[in-house]
């Protein structure tokens, strides 16, 4: 039986999904950012991909990708990697910008994301593995500003 919080979470995801059709890019970007918090829910996957590959404004792409990457977990990384599998060059560039923006400061956060990608790259889903490999390449080319003490 679904709990009250599960029902409320599904209602929130449904409301955010309705913003995917908003003509206002700010509405779509806000919805993409908020929906990233619910990325672990199966019903959030399709709308997140729609926001990541927004046909009208790549600001929505960048905002959604940043929010997913800031989760610092496999769910967020997998959603971004999945979008990379079908992104055109323009969307891929903005996703790349989001990756740099999120992971350029702390080496330990970048390294943890690389390790998560390494684990996901062995998965059974070939298109996702390609996206994860792309994302991993983006991560390893970053030279973060701050490294743990004692690391060069």
Describe this structure in words.
- It is a single chain.
- It contains eight helices and no strands.
- The N and C termini lie far apart (53 Å).
- Helix 2 runs antiparallel to helix 3 and helix 7 runs antiparallel to helix 8.
- The longest helix has 15 residues.
- The model has no long low-confidence stretch (mean pLDDT 95).
- It has 152 residues and is an all-alpha fold.
- The chain has one domain: Leucine-rich Repeat Variant (Alpha Horseshoe), CATH 1.25.10.
- 68% of the residues lie in helices and 0% in strands.
Question: What would you say about this model in short?
Answer:
The protein has 152 residues and is an all-alpha fold. Helix content is 68%, strand content 0%.
Number of strands: 0
Question: How many separate structural domains?
Answer: 1
Q: What would you report as the Rg, rounded to the nearest angstrom?
A: 16 Å
CATH architecture: Alpha Horseshoe
| Uncertain spans | none
Q: Would you list the SSEs in sequence order as H and E?
A: HHHHHHHH
| Structural shape | globular
What would CATH call the class?
Answer: Mainly Alpha
What portion of residues belong to β-strands?
Answer: under 5%
What share of residues is helical? 55-70%
Rounded mean pLDDT is 95
Annotated CATH topology: Leucine-rich Repeat Variant
The count of helical stretches stands at: 8
């Amino acid at each position: 039986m679904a709990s009250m919080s599960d029902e409320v979470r599904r209602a929130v995801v449904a409301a955010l999904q309705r913003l995917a059709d908003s003509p206002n890019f700010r509405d779509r970007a806000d919805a993409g950012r908020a929906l990233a918090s619910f990325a672990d829910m199966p019903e959030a996957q399709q709308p997140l991909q729609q926001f990541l590959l927004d046909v009208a404004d790549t600001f929505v792409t960048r905002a959604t990708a940043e929010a997913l990457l800031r989760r610092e977990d496999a769910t967020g990384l997998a959603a971004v990697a999945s979008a990379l599998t079908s992104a055109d060059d323009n969307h891929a560039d903005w996703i790349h910008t989001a990756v740099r923006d999120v992971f350029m400061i702390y080496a330990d956060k970048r390294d943890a994301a690389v390790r998560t990608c390494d684990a996901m790259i062995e998965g059974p889903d070939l298109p996702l593995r390609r996206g994860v490999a792309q994302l991993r390449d983006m991560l390893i080319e970053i030279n973060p500003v701050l490294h743990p003490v004692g690391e060069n």
